[in-house]
Amino acid sequence: MKPFLLISLFVSPALVWAQSNVYTIEGRLGKVKPAAKAYVRYIVGNTGHTDSSLIQNGRFTITGSVDEPQHAWLFIDKSSIRFYLEPGTISVTSPDSIQNAVVGGSPMNIDNQKLKKKLKPTDDQMALLEKQYQAATPEQKKEKEFKGRFEKRNEAIFAQQNKIKAQFIQEHPTSMLSLYVLKQYTDWFAPEVSKVEPMFSSLSEAIKTSKTGKDYAKTLALLQATSVGAMAPEFTQPDTSGKAISLSSFRGKYVLVDFWASWCGPCRAENPNLVKNFKQYKDKNFTVLGVSLDRPNGKEAWLKAIHKDQLDWTQVSDLKHWDSEVAKQYAIRLIPQNFLIDPDGKIVAKNIRGEDLGKKLAEILADKP
């Protein structure tokens, strides 16, 4: 462990990874059942990987290789922890069970412990908020005022956490964790490119030119191409009957391109709001184009959801789930998401839902004949 850490002080992380992709997890736990095994599991692309080791006297060693850092899970019995799997030696220590383990040793996991310490107050606030929500009665959870208060507090905590993470990125430009934190933020919140590009630019060249850095640069390019003010990228997808439908066929109208799926709870919860606004503005040069991320075997579920939710507008899908060609083109990594496109094909708003959707449509369509 010591030689690796000494090297990492003088050589950029990208060069260290280029020299060796071997990882070693050294575990030391206080309380483990006899004959227990430790498993490390991670996913590269669409392929799952598992390495394991027998635990003897509370100690275990797992060795394998990864080409680049990965989010991974360490399982013992039915318990697990999440950590960063990367080349080098990773230490996992706990006075008792795996749930209380501290992961360190390697650069990203050392930095992650620093970030977790900074985030702990907000994590505690979030845990308390969740506890309070669970303690509420079913009747309270249905109340609009109650849900509004809960969502407002939840958003405030998220905002504080994002502020802490942004500060971490600013203070740690040579840490690969900074890139991963930025990537996670982009995947979870689908921000405008103007908000994340400066943070990426502030990172060291070694981080930006790593494989993960180059992949993130491609994501930024897609975000730029689908930012407010850009011309919406053209696409063609089959509708429910298999007929090819192009985005350009909606030119001359305001169209809300809505990314959703039958299996997506938040999407289904937002559908009544879409229906309401569609009915209100469909005669004012406005329509909706639904793009489903349903699975290859999910056509029946897709059609059933359209019927049940009364989605009376054009629906398209290549039924490729997250491999959807349009989802990749529009950098979609979470749903629901939407893009409001004007009659000329320009994106004029993104991710407007709830009351915000009605307000935006009223702003641009209220005076339409």
Automatic annotation (TrEMBL):
It is found in: Cell envelope. One of its GO terms (biological process) is cytochrome complex assembly. Keywords: Cytochrome c-type biogenesis, Disulfide bond, Redox-active center, Signal. Residues 226-369 form the Thioredoxin domain. GO terms for molecular function: antioxidant activity; oxidoreductase activity. It comes from the Bacteria. One of its GO terms (cellular component) is cell envelope. Residues 1-18 form the signal peptide. Gene3D superfamilies: Glutaredoxin (3.40.30.10). PROSITE patterns: THIOREDOXIN_1 (PS00194), THIOREDOXIN_2 (PS51352). The keyword Manganese does not apply. The keyword Repeat does not apply. Pfam families: AhpC-TSA, DUF4369. SUPFAM superfamilies: Thioredoxin-like. PANTHER family: THIOL:DISULFIDE INTERCHANGE PROTEIN DSBE. This is AhpC/TSA family protein. It comes from Spirosoma aureum.
